[in-house]
Automatic annotation (TrEMBL):
GO terms for biological process: purine nucleobase biosynthetic process. One of its GO terms (cellular component) is cytosol. Gene3D superfamilies: Leucine Dehydrogenase, chain A, domain 1, NAD(P)-binding Rossmann-like Domain. InterPro entries: Aminoacid_DH-like_N_sf, NAD(P)-bd_dom_sf, THF_DH/CycHdrlase_cat_dom, THF_DH/CycHdrlase_NAD-bd_dom. It comes from Tremella mesenterica. One of its GO terms (molecular function) is methylenetetrahydrofolate dehydrogenase (NAD+) activity. PANTHER family: C-1-TETRAHYDROFOLATE SYNTHASE, CYTOPLASMIC-RELATED, METHYLENETETRAHYDROFOLATE DEHYDROGENASE [NAD(+)]. This is Methylenetetrahydrofolate dehydrogenase (NAD+). Residues 244-400 form the Tetrahydrofolate dehydrogenase/cyclohydrolase NAD(P)-binding domain. Residues 108-212 form the Tetrahydrofolate dehydrogenase/cyclohydrolase catalytic domain.
Amino acid sequence: MSLRLDTSLLTSFTLARKDSHQSDLTDTSFTSFSTSSDSLSSYSTSPSSCDVSCVSTPIDEDFKCLSLPTSNQDALIPLFCTPCGVDLPRESPETPHVECLEPKMLPITKGINEWIKARTADWDRPLKVVGLLATTDEGCAIYSNQTRKACEKVNVGFEIRTLEHDFEIVKSAIEQVNHDYEVDGLIIYFPLFGPDKDNELRALISPRIDIEAISPSSLAKVYTSTPGTLAEMGIGFPSHSVFPCTPLAVVRVLQSLKTMYDHLRPSGQRLSGKVISVINRSETVGRPLAAMLANEGALIFSIDIDSIHIYHRHSAADHYCVTPLPKTVETNDCLRLSDVVVSAVPSAKYKVDTAVLKTGCVCVNIATDNNFAEDVKDRAGVWVQRVGSVTIANLISNAVILRLASECA
């Protein structure tokens, strides 16, 4: 059964955009940090920083109307409807059988690697990346070894420096690499000393070598720009930004899907009309990813442990704004509407409720532990379980971009 809404009264609603010139540290609406970049964060915001306002213009025409179960329609419909009638399902239909594609990451990684080789082929000094390993965590050791192998494939020098698990020692090592102009990129294997201390270390990284794009100055650029395609990458020095590697890997995956990413549109509009849920709002993964996708035209549900926010723009000329949703809106309400679901929850116990997924949606897991049950392939049209190889390729391509930018400065 469906409900047909009279949306004639919705013409006055849209999202309020905070003045984009007020903050250059983080995104255009919030300046508070989550408690941990490595966990599903506890996140609080100021109610006055972005809200729902009555204005005379509707939201982007790409979003005609979205719906939720009747109990939550009053809360959400004013946020993203233009005046049009629409049939609203009261509940999710039974799951039909769909053909689920599981795209390989190799073609994406290969394309990035070929770009790296082409850009660095005639360099007198080979590209050099340094990794600081100050933990005995097995996952970090595996990641550093994978990075070494990836660097070898594209003739990039990689040096791992093993340090004592001591804050001052790591701090000193960062400062040393910052001033070594034979080094083009720095990787620090977090987590190390807890959220506050780790954020302090991230802030020390020179933008010149921040290939993970995790320092405050690097993240500030992420919130106001969009990553181009592989063909566009590295154009526009010295202003071209680098992007956090795992979020960028998700973007590269979406760019590889012709039904998802419209390459014919100009930058900033290539995901217009798409609805995407990003589960986890960590400072170095979930939140930058939501911003990157919103700045490319998508409507984003940013879902965290205690809140759900919408990231969206008024038009292609604007940067995104952020609007907290009422507590009555639940994760599953958002998943029912989403063309793409990306989950990054660092817990083996957390699982996305696959029963409510939109039939044929794209599901991407970027958590260490799989956040989706096996039956995700019964519902999803595209299932991506790992993006690790693309993440590492992005690290190296970021180093190339920063080297080129430095030489053009």
